[in-house]
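Batch manifest, entry 17 of 40.
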Amino acid sequence: MSKNLKAIVKEKYSQIAQQSKTQNETSCCESSGCCDSVDYTVFSDDYSNLQGYNSDADLGLGCGIPTNFAHLKPGDSVLDLGSGAGNDCFVARVIVGESGKVTGLDFTEAMIEKARINNEKLGYQNVEFVQGDIEQMPLRDNSFDVVISNCVLNLVPDKEKAFKEIYRVLKPGGHFCVSDVVISGKLPEKIKDDAEMYAGCVSGAIQKNDYLEIIRENNFMNTSIEKEKEIEIPNTILLNYISMDELRKFKKTRTGIYSITVRAKK
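Output type: structure tokens
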């Protein structure tokens, strides 16, 4: 099952890597002519006023701005998990400066290629992009001051492994700051089981309390939610998966889908 989910994510985000933010908003793959029913930018925040913002690197795939709460400092070594086309890495690079270092890790070859092209245009010598699996990172122990991630860990099938790996690669006293999607309540099974909604950061999300418990169980300290906002999935999207009657029942359950930005220390 885990391998199947990873294959779904890799295939979908390989397609997304070939698209612009505008195309992702309409969920149409220009190269393949396919259209699906998920708006991959539905959770995203506006980066355009941030220093370091690069429009070529912004595919609108995030659900927060973790660098706003990550307490980055000049000279920090930063790891961005699921770095995509490099958006958060380039924002982090402006903060850590030339004395710092930023590493982006992504599962998808097409995203790594796109990020490297963007980085080459910007000319940063202390930003690198590495292909790898968050559940088994090809990175050394105790390497980073800060780990950030933006709407990616909900795509990882084994979140326990993901947080174990974050703990391993952080330096003693280091911390992470991640924006992610969580659930409060119960999703309809047709949505939870759907591959498209998994790749779109909805059905892969877990209960908020379970998410925070995984963090605590992996020995992180001082866990805090820096920002939380409820996400409204448009009815037009939900109706691709469930009937109108099922939608009415779902609305009555008061199930909430939330973007949270969480910080915790090793």
